[in-house]
Amino acid sequence: MRIWSIHPKYLDSKGLVALWREALLAKTVLEGKTTGYRDHPQLDRFKNSKNPLDAINQYLSGIYDESEDRHYNFDSAKFRKPIIPIFLTVNEGQILFEFEHLLCKLKVRENNLYRKLKETKTIIAHPMFKIIKGEIEYWEKIK
To answer: Among 48, 58, 128, 142, which Cα is nearest to 93's?
Structure first.
């Protein structure tokens, strides 16, 4: 499961569709509707928020907005945007790690986008995340 902290605008089409599916799976897990993935470390940031379901719905909303910008046909009925926006923090080291991880994926499967993004100087987070100083998050699996 990869729940990206970077802005979904950086993802290629395969990456954005995969993120949508992974985030919907995360929502199902947080709703208690599945037995798998319950202890997945990437869900900790949502679980540790005041309202985990609102948090994952806010996250899905950001993905949905990107899908709209690309004229994709994601189903808005799959989530409910919270009335009061939710913001979480993410460490700067995590953002840098994820961006490098994405570049490695894109170099193989979407070289044109890779060449465009490798020149990026300032990396933007998913709209619900505020970047703070810090290393790679504890929940990240590093190989």
So the answer is: 142
Neighbours of 79 (CB within 10 A): 21
- Structure tokens that stand for 63 in this block: 């993905």
Geometric angle at alpha carbon 22, from 17 and 27, rounded to 5° = 125
Whole-number Å distance between alpha carbons of 89 and 37: 22
Question: Where do the domains of the chain lie?
Answer: 8-132
Over residues 109-127, the pLDDT tens digits come to: 999 999 999 999 999 999 9
Give the end-to-end CA distance of the chain in Å, rounded to a whole number: 15
Q: Residues 93, 8, 20, 32: is their CA dihedral positive or negative?
A: positive
Q: What is the pTM of this model?
A: 0.94
Of 52, 110, 109, residue with least CA distance to 86: 52
